[in-house]
């Protein structure tokens, strides 16, 4: 990898103070590669690298660093160097940095910006947290419908260095309201004398500045654009969101969902950048909650222990892990399907009746199939390899209890696994929470209740015969 091949050379050049050679090496690298190379550099080494970068490249490299390194550089760089980087940073990346920093630090950095850039930064920070407004950049190319293609191309050449993307241009009216978007390739292929109004269809796809950024992800997935316009309440074009920014949002959302699935509050920093106390705060509350839920399982077992003969209780307990695990697996399968279906809009909370009917049938079939396997496993385990094999009615009762319990538990798990995500979505809660340990805890308690209730009933019935 490039990282492994060049980083030792970078460190050696710094140690030998061969700054001219180092500057040439850094100039030949892409900003993304420089950002990767600097992630393992120490404070002073990091400062040396940034002082040797050109102003434009320094801003791009800074935007590609993790927050922890950005904060370290804020302490190392001089006021002038820091101001240059912040002024040249893409506005959307700068907004992300400022909203992640403590308020007093962010306020201090705002004062280092030029008047124009400070106004841009403050304007973006006025939008709600996690909104599309904080994700967008105001560096877009706006044109008029009555311009000719040649006028537009001439305009692009003049403004290109200050714009985020040239692949998409946006047509506005005299009030700045969005009319439509137009691809650069369509302009290049059109006759130079044709007006822009003759190329567009005036049916723009757009984002609203105050909407949640997750909405941007869904719209980008649907329309597969490289950039989309953002409008305010008056339909005035105020910025654009690019595909790479949406990919970052998708990664953050996927990470957050994964953390919730394993009962961890979403980490705001990478694993190694999260300190001990923060990690404890993220994990311990969930573990305490799940611990309390599992106490219900212990309570249920205690109740049955007092009602059953100790020998019978000990034999029944042997199959409890099998039943709970089987039901938990079935529930997790269905919860995963439901969560994914909700995420890609294949199902909605209003489909609950259809899901319920489908899972009642499917759960019954799965439960019956696994129940038959459970009966066979119980018969083998209770007769083979035991000093005192169980026979007769007691064997039949216990094997039947295992099979029926598996069938009922799998049916219940299938229904619960499908219904809870829909319920959470209806309540505007994240369905991802319902997967993993959360669902497993529910199934542990219900599995014990189902199994011991059925086992107790079966033993009473067979003893009465």
Describe this structure in words.
The chain has helices spanning 2-15, 19-27, 31-37, 43-52, 55-63, 67-76, 79-88, 91-100, 103-112, 115-125, 149-159, 184-189, 213-223, 243-261, 276-307, 310-317, 320-343, 352-383, 392-426, 437-464, and strands at 142-144, 168-172, 178-183, 207-208, 227-231, 237-242. It folds into 3 domains: 2-126, Alpha Horseshoe (MgtE N-terminal fold); 142-253, CBS-domain; 271-464, Tetracycline Repressor, domain 2. By secondary structure, the chain is mainly alpha-helical. It contains 20 helices and 6 strands. The N and C termini lie far apart (74 Å). It has a 3-stranded mixed sheet. The protein has a 3-stranded mixed sheet with strand order 4-5-6. 66% of the residues lie in helices and 6% in strands.
Quick synopsis:
This protein has a 3-stranded mixed β-sheet with strand order 1-2-3. It has a 3-stranded mixed β-sheet with strand order 4-5-6.
Gross geometry: elongated
Q: What is the level-2 CATH architecture name of the largest domain?
A: Orthogonal Bundle
Strand content: 5-15%
CATH topology of the largest domain: Tetracycline Repressor, domain 2
* Termini separation: 74 Å
Strand count, sense and barrel status of the largest sheet are: 3 strands, mixed
Give the overall average pLDDT: 85
- What is the level 1 CATH name of the largest domain? Mainly Alpha
How many structurally independent domains? 3
Number of strands: 6
Could you state the CATH homologous superfamily of the largest domain? SLC41 divalent cation transporters, integral membrane domain
State Rg.
31 Å
How do the strands line up in the largest sheet? 1-2-3
Helix content: 55-70%
Sequence stretches where pLDDT stays below 50 over 5 or more residues: none
